[in-house]
């Protein structure tokens, strides 16, 4: 870090560590708020889990928004990405309009290719869920996957 500037905390002294545009970034004629993120259960069952969030057009014009769902496995046999896009839905809202959006996650959605087992694996773990307009979504919840959901 360059000693004259504390605003940069990266391996390059003259560049910030974050991308100029986050994944999922898009321009709209309006602004949107996300609130009241809820999961259908605290633990994933065989039929998966649903996430709902209230989306409100907080701007003065009608607009479209892509509601994006990201997950992260907190611990497991392999290092997982910090956030993975697992679902999305495009919606149109009039100015001031609100809508509850439901996105579904299945066990397959949170599985990954395991080099150790040489097949897709879903692990017993705690998973974080974020829903918002990009990879920097702030609305957060968590659920667990019990050992009974894991195939040997």
Which keywords apply here?
4-stranded antiparallel beta sheet; single chain; Immunoglobulin-like; 3-stranded antiparallel beta sheet; mainly beta; 152 residues
What topology, given as strand order, has the largest sheet?
Answer: 4-3-8-9
Name given to the CATH homologous superfamily: Immunoglobulins
Largest beta-sheet characterization: 4 strands, antiparallel
Mean pLDDT: 87
Helix segment tally: 0
Task: Give the N-to-C terminal Cα separation.
Answer: 47 Å
What structural category characterises the helix and strand content?
A: mainly beta
Helix content: under 10%
Computed CA radius of gyration, to the nearest angstrom:
18 Å
Strand % is 35-45%
- How many domains would you count in the coordinates? 1
N-to-C order of helices and strands: EEEEEEEEE
Q: How many E-type strands?
A: 9
Can you put this structure into words, describing what you see?
The protein has no helices and nine strands. The chain is mainly β and 152 residues long. It starts with 31 loop residues before the first strand and ends in a 7-residue tail after the last strand. 18% of the residues are buried.
What does the secondary structure layout of this molecule look like, with pairings?
Elements: E1 32-39, E2 49-57, E3 63-73, E4 84-93, E5 98-105, E6 112-114, E7 119-121, E8 125-132, E9 139-145
Antiparallel strand pairs: 1-2, 2-5, 3-4, 3-8, 6-7, 8-9
């Amino acid at each position: 870090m360059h000693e004259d500037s504390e605003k940069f905390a990266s391996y390059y002294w003259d560049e910030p560590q974050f991308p100029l545009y986050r994944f999922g970034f898009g321009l709209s004629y309006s602004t949107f708020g996300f609130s009241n993120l809820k999961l259908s259960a605290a633990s994933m069952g065989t039929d998966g889990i649903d996430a709902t969030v209230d989306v409100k057009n907080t701007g003065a014009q009608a607009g479209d928004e892509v509601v994006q769902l990201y997950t992260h496995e907190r611990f497991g046999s392999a290092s997982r990405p910090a956030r993975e896009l697992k679902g999305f839905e495009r919606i149109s809202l009039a100015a001031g309009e609100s809508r509850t959006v439901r996105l579904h996650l299945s066990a397959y959605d949170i599985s990954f290719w395991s080099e150790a087992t040489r097949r897709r694996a879903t692990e017993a773990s705690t998973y974080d869920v974020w829903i918002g307009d990009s990879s920097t979504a702030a609305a957060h919840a968590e659920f667990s996957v019990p050992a009974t959901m894991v195939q040997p």
